């Protein structure tokens, strides 16, 4: 067998997994898609989804992630052609490391079946109605104030309606961001900028570069930004013990389940995300996203300043963000925080996603309240699938998991919320034990 060893590679090269895996540092990155080997070292910097998400797959098989994230594979393959340096040796398996070949094949079959059944086709009316109810909520919130005045009661009612509109706009921008509404990616991108920029005042590029990493490697340290807790919390069963053994104590982690209520849900959107978004747009010179974001604040101030003045408008917006943040954190964390959080085990797509996600029971309220992210498992397996089809594919996913002995967890809403609290307490206890005794 011919093994081509130079770091640059050449189009006719034949490689082993061992060699591919050696090209996984920042200045030398290879990956495998459908047994073809690609040198992505230079392309990673120009990758539309960001350098980090593609770099997380350097040195390994990226076939399943590639298929999951790109709705138009034929179009994307045009960009792959110049990067091709060879293929895997005939004696090498199609899967690397801990990826289960049978599960991978069965999941591929399930995805093909879902595509044949039209489950990746969006219903325009669903998304039009969703946008309509967001605009209606926001309009009613301002009308109440303009017509009946700015009493504390009416201001509170208006703030709740504005926060609800913000959260629902958050679920809608999530749909566009995952390219799950229109067949043409460009249409999704434009509407994504409108939804996250003009309806919410945030940045599409910031969201894309952050959120796709989460999907590519969920609950995996140093790869999923959502488990980068900035030393404020320790999560999972591995990190607390590591911190404890190294005597790391930035915070009293055995009380984190209590101070979570003060610094987690209330502050994530109003403080942390706010600072991160502004810093990202300015440092990357992302003037288009900044213009979209400013259009939201201009519209908000035009509506609020005549009634509340500038200071009152800032206070009202801060309260709206506070309400939105509490809602957002509890909904998004109940699917992930109580699940397995660890270093990369290089599992196949299905196993990796199922270890990091769980579902919340279906009901019309739960669907609306969580933006259909109560079907978090299906969303993670098929990120480009329109959310109104999750309930259709869910029984097939569950059957596949049962066949291969992969746990498929479904909880009540209350159980999911309670598990966020309990998981933080358990992680804090693990840290304290390791800190004192190991």
TrEMBL record:
Membrane topology field: Multi-pass membrane protein
GO molecular function: acyl-CoA (8-3)-desaturase activity
Record EC number: 1.14.19.44
Highest taxon of source: Eukaryota
Transmembrane segments: 259-277, 297-320
Annotated GO CC locations: membrane
Listed pathway(s): Lipid metabolism; polyunsaturated fatty acid biosynthesis
Keywords: Fatty acid biosynthesis, Fatty acid metabolism, Lipid biosynthesis, Lipid metabolism, Membrane, Oxidoreductase, Transmembrane, Transmembrane helix
GO-annotated biological processes: unsaturated fatty acid biosynthetic process
Reaction equation(s) it catalyzes: (8Z,11Z,14Z,17Z)-eicosatetraenoyl-CoA + 2 Fe(II)-[cytochrome b5] + O2 + 2 H(+) = (5Z,8Z,11Z,14Z,17Z)-eicosapentaenoyl-CoA + 2 Fe(III)-[cytochrome b5] + 2 H2O
Enzyme class: oxidoreductase
InterPro entries in UniProt: Cyt_B5-like_heme/steroid-bd, Cyt_B5-like_heme/steroid_sf, FA_desaturase_dom, Fatty_acid_desaturase
Residue stretches making up the Cytochrome b5 heme-binding domain: 12-89
Localization annotation: Membrane
Pfam families: Cyt-b5, FA_desaturase
Recorded family membership: Belongs to the fatty acid desaturase type 1 family.
Protein's recorded name: acyl-CoA (8-3)-desaturase
Gene: fads2
């Amino acid at each position: 067998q011919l093994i081509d060893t130079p770091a640059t590679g050449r189009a006719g090269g034949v490689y082993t997994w061992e060699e591919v895996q050696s090209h996984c540092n920042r200045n030398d990155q290879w990956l495998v898609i459908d047994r073809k080997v690609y040198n992505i070292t230079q392309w990673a910097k120009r990758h539309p989804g960001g350098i980090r998400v593609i770099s997380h797959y350097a040195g390994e098989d990226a076939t399943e992630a590639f298929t999951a994230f790109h709705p138009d594979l034929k179009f994307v393959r045009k960009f792959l052609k110049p990067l091709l340096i060879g293929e895997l040796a005939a004696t090498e398996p199609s899967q690397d490391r801990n990826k289960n070949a049978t599960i991978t094949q069965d999941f591929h079959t399930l995805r093909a079946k879902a595509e044949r059944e039209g489950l990746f086709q969006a219903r325009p009316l669903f998304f039009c109605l969703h946008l309509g109810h967001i605009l209606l909520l926001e309009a009613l919130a301002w009308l109440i104030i303009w017509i009946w005045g700015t009493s504390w009661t009416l201001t509170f009612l208006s703030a709740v309606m504005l926060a609800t509109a913000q959260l629902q706009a958050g679920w809608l921008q999530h749909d566009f961001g995952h390219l799950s509404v229109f067949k043409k990616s460009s249409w999704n991108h434009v509407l994504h900028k409108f939804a996250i920029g003009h309806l919410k005042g945030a940045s599409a590029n910031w969201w894309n570069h952050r959120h796709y990493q989460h999907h590519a490697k969920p609950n995996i340290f140093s790869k999923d930004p959502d488990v980068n807790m900035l030393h404020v919390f320790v999560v999972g069963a591995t990190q607390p013990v590591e911190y404890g053994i190294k005597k790391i104590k930035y915070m009293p982690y055995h009380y984190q389940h209590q101070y979570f209520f003060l610094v987690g849900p209330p502050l994530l959107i109003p403080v942390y995300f706010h600072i991160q978004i502004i810093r990202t747009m300015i440092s990357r010179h992302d003037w288009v996203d900044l213009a979209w974001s400013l259009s939201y604040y201009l519209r908000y101030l035009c509506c609020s300043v005549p009634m509340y003045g500038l200071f009152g408008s800032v206070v009202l917006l801060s309260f709206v963000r506070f309400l939105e943040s509490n809602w957002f954190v509890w909904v998004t964390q109940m699917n992930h925080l109580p699940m397995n959080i660890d270093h990369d085990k290089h599992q196949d797509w299905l196993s990796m996603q199922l270890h990091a996600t769980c579902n919340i029971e279906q009901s019309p309220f739960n669907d609306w309240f969580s933006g259909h992210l109560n079907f978090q498992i299906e969303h993670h397996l098929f990120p480009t699938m329109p959310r109104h089809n999750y309930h259709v594919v869910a029984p097939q996913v569950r059957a596949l998991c049962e066949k291969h002995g992969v746990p498929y967890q479904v909880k009540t809403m209350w159980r999911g919320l309670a598990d966020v609290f309990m998981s933080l307490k358990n992680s804090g206890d693990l840290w304290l034990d390791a800190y004192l005794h190991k």
